[in-house]
Amino acid sequence: MRILFVGYTEVHSKKWVNILCKRGHEVIFVIPRSSDESKQEIDSRAKLIELPFSGRIGYYLNAPFLKKIEKKYHPNVANVHNASGTGTLARFAGLDNEMLSVWGHDVYGFPYKNKLCMNIIRKNLLHAKAIGSTSYCMAEKVYKLIGHERPVTITPFGIDTNKFNPEKFTSKQDDTIVIGNVKSLSPKYGIEDLIKAIEVLKKDLQRDKQYSNLAPKLRCKIYGSGVQEKELCELIKKLQLGSIVSLMGEVSNTLVPEAMSKMDIFCATSILDSESFGVAVVEAQAMELPVVVSDVEGFCEVVEDGVTGIIVKRKNIQEIAAGLKRLVIDKELRYRMGRNGRKRVLERYDIEYNVIQMEEAYKKVVNMRSQRVKE
Length: 375
Known about the structure:
It is a single chain. The chain has 375 residues and is of the alpha/beta class. The strands form 2 sheets. A 7-stranded parallel beta sheet has the order 3-2-1-4-5-6-7, sandwiched between helices. Strands 10-9-8-11-12-13 form a 6-stranded parallel beta sheet, sandwiched between helices. The chain has 2 domains: 181 residues, Glycogen Phosphorylase B (Rossmann fold); 183 residues, 3-Layer(aba) Sandwich (Rossmann fold). Strand 11, helix 11 and strand 12 form a beta-alpha-beta unit. The protein is elongated and about 70 Å long. Helix content is 44%, strand content 16%.
């Protein structure tokens, strides 16, 4: 199949492009000039085309160039990632056989900024022949915006379970209990709630005669960079957690499995439902880590409460700390939830399985076109 893939060079788009190339598809990967992320790690078999204009105005000015690319390559299907930005570009280019893959911000945030944004997103969604959503909860948001006028296929961000495999890494050699997180240091991810919960957990363990010996073993490693870095450093200092909580800096996606292999528990405390899938949580479960997550919609979909992890109320510091304590004091529970988590990922979120789901969605779009031609 010849696929025109319109998106950005962020990690998820590259993952889709690479797996599609691996499965023998011809992929023309079109990106805006404003896409300043790394172009490395893109399969050499993909044809990478960069559009001439940058910025938001580029979504309009690049339209005739994208249309020329479509006419030159005659793709079977055009998979456009990001409904608000490149979705606008695709609509103005008049792409003929479009499947639009929505992101969380497209349906949770952007439409509700103002009436203009709502109008744009609805037009973009209705221009597409079909829509892809990484989760059922996000699909419901699409239906809320446009009704059931376009089919929505669930196409999760698959995980390379061979890469995210704990058996590929040596076990931790010390007796510390490491609670980890891999996220951008941005307010919506609730990192400050995690840090505050660590303080509550530490004090609770110190007061608990049965488990006070665990308090000195407690560690928290937070990977990522972002606008909150200085603020979080000051919070760690204020709470006197310097010996426990470490901001590890940004880690490349290729090194995330190794970083997770040094953790005992993964904790994600996002505060917004625009966390519509939770890739890092799925990656952690693939690494057999038990998880403590906030009750945002995406996490509730990928975590089975009490089986693969513990779901707590967002922004509730005491509840986050209590969830963490259950896992800190019970090694057997950590092991059991970790094993269950990897089993769940293998069944639902292995990228080899998810790409087949995506291919089936593409075929439906191609069949729609064939049906239109017959008519």
